[in-house]
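Purpose: get a first structural picture of the assembly so the mutagenesis plan has something to point at.
Setup: two entries, given in the order below. No constraints added.
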Amino acid sequence: MTDESREPRPLDDLDARLRAARGQRESETRRETAGRSSTGMGLGFRIATELVAGIAVGTLIGYALDGWLGSRPWFMVVFLFLGAAAGTMNVYRAAKGLDDSVGLGEAQRRKERDRTNDS
Amino acid sequence: MANPVEQFKIQPLVPLEVGGVNLSFTNSALFMVVSIVLVTAFLTLSVRGRALVPGRWQSMAEIFYEFVANMIRDNVGYEGRKYFPFIFSLFMFVLFGNLLGMIPYTFTYTSHIIVTFGLAVVVFVGVTIIGFARHGVGYLRMFFPHGAPLATAVILVPIELISYCSRPFSLAIRLFANMTVGHIILKVMAGFVVALGVFGIVPMAFLAGVTILEFGIAVLQAYVFAILSCIYLHDAIHMH
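Result (structure tokens, whole complex):
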């Protein structure tokens, strides 16, 4: 004797159901990502390295450009400041937890969107 | 008293020179091989039984597997699953390197910036290639914040470019600095224990605490390295 209620649901809408379930999990993981936090010490170390790395890379690019174009020291000076700006921006991003994107404006907007979705 | 930085010295074990390039098998290379052998042995031997109800060793292997799998799912999303082997290998290599270094008389290969930088560059180049492969030239839009006035591109694009290029450096410096600093502190403190005689008990107690902390840092830094790789991968795949 077959029990009607225990009959498996027809497979016609399986695709739609799968998609719905998948979408749900995706949005769950998105929220987890937004709420991710790191330990204080880890964050501190992160900020220190971001700042140093930004300045170092900027200066390095400037130095290489100078060597290539023979315009020592102008590019190095310009890129030192650009590197400092990049480093500071990375620090701001790490401290704000916006670190998972390169474009700062984009990351801010995503954070806004997540906040409005949550509330 | 031994020099606190002597422990980081590279010693060639099997001198080898090919075409003027020094390719010696060093103590660093030895411990990389040891760590790879240990990881492989740990993962293959522990799941050899393929038990449905895992035993102790199999549980440990499964914990590592699930930990990394969850990390990728949470940070990269479902498209990230095919990069699981790479992230998992990276995580295990760094983790075992850090932990092996905590055993006395071993060599910590993650305490050399060229090793961590090599790993970071592989991640960086790989992520960049994935980004261009998935988005084509559109990947370059990443360097200009959406909605910013076009006139600001002159200053914003170089800054974003530098910010992007600083990723492998910050990855490499973080891991290297953590491991090096920790090992130097341990060595210096151990020197005090001998030098202070009876009062050496004070640095000894401190040393015990720092050793525990170092184990924590060894695991945490492997985790940070892997999770940042995941975040970069997420950027390249989704490019929000």
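The two ends of chain A are 49 Å apart (CA to CA).
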